[in-house]
Design goal:
alpha+beta; 9-stranded antiparallel beta sheet
C-alpha cells in the first residue's frame, strides 16, 4: 500500500475515527486505526466494539485531487502515535507506504517516521446492516436533538438502560427521551423516510455525544438506519455505527403531569442567571439545592442557605404567576442544565405542588419538555 494525501484531510479523518478508539480494550488490535487504500480513495476505521466510525477520503473531489493512490492495500497503525504524528507533520502533503513485515513509512517534507503496523485482516469487520428502513434528518437538527436530551441520561450503571436516550419513531415523528429518574428531557422532531412503522431504539448517551462532535453544522441530510441491535448514521463521507442498549425503556409518558397548580412565565436568561448566582453558595452544600418561592405582585424569590457558608436571596420579576402560592426546592444544576437547552426568551414552568415533578417549556415551543423532581428540604 502506498499513497500521497493532503495533510488537512488526513488530520480531520484521523481525529474523527479517534473518537471511537479506546486504550481500555480487551482486543489489542482495536487500539489501532485501520487504513484501507483503494482506487476510489482511502478509508480510515476506528472502533471500540460499541462504537465504530469509518471516514472516507475520495481520490478526487470537485475536480481536485486529494489522494494519489500508488498502490492499494491496508494496514492497522497504533492510533495514539499515528494521530500525534499526522498532527505535527511539517508540509501540506503526506506520503504513507507499507513495506514488508507491516513496516509503515510516513513521510512529509524532510520528516520520516517508521511505525510498526499490524495485519489489517485481523481487524474485526464492521456490522453489516440491511438498509431497508432509512430515515433522514438534517445534521444540524440531529445535533440539536442530541444536545437537548443527552445531558439527562443516567451516569450510573445500576440501570444500564437509563444511560441511553430512547428514540421512538411514530407517524413520521421522532421522540427522544432521556431520564436519570431525577429529571427528564424530551424532544420531538419530524423525520423523513418513515414508512408508517413505529419502532424504538435506546442509543447509549456516550455514542450520541461522540456523534454530535463529528457532525457538521449543516442542513445536509444524515441517513439513519436502525436494526435490532445497531444504529448507523451516514453523513457525506462518514459512517457512524453504535450498538443499541438491550432492555425495555420505562414508560415515561405517565411522569409528565397534565394539570398544574401554579404556572410561572419568566425571562429565560434572567432566571438562569439568578439560579446560577444562588447556586454559588449551594455548591458546597449537599445536592446544590436552591429554593424558589412565589411572592405577591408577580415576584419570585430565589434563595439558598448553607449554614456553614452563608445564604443568598434574590428577587426576580416574573412575566406572570398564576395559581396557588408555592415554595419548592430543587437541584440548581438540573435546573441550569434544562434552561440551557431551551430556545426562546421566555419559559413557562408548571408546578403541581411542592413535592411533585414540575415541567419547563419554552413559551412558544411545545417540541421540547424538561421535567425535574423537586428535593425535600424540610
Amino acid at each position: 500500500m502506498r499513497f500521497i494525501i493532503q495533510r488537512d484531510r488526513l488530520v480531520q479523518s484521523v481525529q474523527d475515527v479517534m473518537k471511537a478508539v479506546t486504550s481500555r480494550t480487551t482486543i489489542p488490535i482495536l487500539t489501532g486505526i485501520k487504513i484501507t487504500a483503494s482506487n476510489e480513495g482511502v478509508t480510515f476505521t476506528g472502533s471500540d466494539s460499541d462504537i465504530s466510525i469509518e471516514s472516507f477520503i475520495p481520490a478526487e473531489e470537485a475536480g481536485e485531487e486529494i489522494v494519489e493512490i500508488k498502490e492499494a492495500g491496508s494496514i492497522v497503525l497504533q492510533a495514539r502515535f499515528f494521530s500525534e504524528i499526522v498532527k505535527k507533520l511539517p508540509l501540506g502533503t503526506v506520503e504513507i507506504g507499507v513495506q514488508g513485515n507491516f513496516q509503515t513509512i510516513i513521510r512529509s517534507g524532510k520528516a520520516e517516521f517508521n511505525l510498526n503496523g499490524l495485519d489489517a485482516d485481523e481487524y474485526p469487520h464492521l456490522p453489516q446492516i440491511e438498509e431497508e428502513n432509512t430515515l433522514k434528518m438534517p445534521a444540524d437538527l440531529l445535533k440539536t436533538l442530541i444536545r437537548q436530551t443527552v445531558f439527562a441520561v443516567s451516569a450510573s450503571e445500576t440501570r444500564p438502560i437509563l444511560t441511553g436516550v430512547n428514540w421512538k419513531i411514530e407517524n413520521g415523528v421522532l421522540y427522544c427521551t432521556a431520564t436519570d429518574s431525577h429529571r427528564l428531557a424530551m424532544r420531538s422532531a419530524p423525520i423523513e423516510g418513515e414508512s408508517g412503522n413505529s419502532y424504538m431504539a435506546v442509543i447509549p448517551g456516550k455514542s450520541l455525544n461522540e456523534l454530535s462532535k463529528i457532525l457538521d453544522d449543516t442542513s445536509d441530510l444524515v441517513d439513519i438506519v436502525i436494526t435490532e441491535n445497531q444504529i448507523l448514521f451516514k453523513a457525506k463521507h462518514l459512517l457512524f455505527f453504535s450498538r443499541l442498549l438491550e432492555g425495555n425503556y420505562p414508560d415515561t409518558s405517565k411522569l409528565i403531569p397534565s394539570e398544574s397548580k401554579t404556572a410561572v412565565v419568566v425571562n429565560t436568561k434572567e432566571f438562569l442567571q439568578a439560579i446560577d448566582r444562588a447556586s454559588l453558595l449551594a455548591k458546597e452544600g449537599r445536592n446544590n439545592v436552591v429554593k424558589l418561592s412565589t411572592i405577591e405582585g408577580r415576584t419570585l424569590e430565589i434563595s439558598s442557605n448553607t449554614p456553614e457558608i452563608g445564604k443568598v436571596i434574590e428577587e426576580l420579576q416574573a412575566e406572570s404567576i398564576d395559581g396557588e402560592e408555592l415554595k419548592i426546592s430543587f437541584s440548581a444544576k438540573y435546573m441550569m442544565d434544562a434552561l440551557k437547552t431551551l430556545e426562546g426568551t421566555e419559559i413557562r414552568v408548571n408546578f403541581t405542588g411542592a413535592m411533585r415533578p414540575f415541567v419547563i417549556r419554552a413559551l412558544n415551543d411545545e417540541n421540547i419538555t424538561q421535567l425535574i423532581l423537586p428535593v425535600r428540604t424540610y
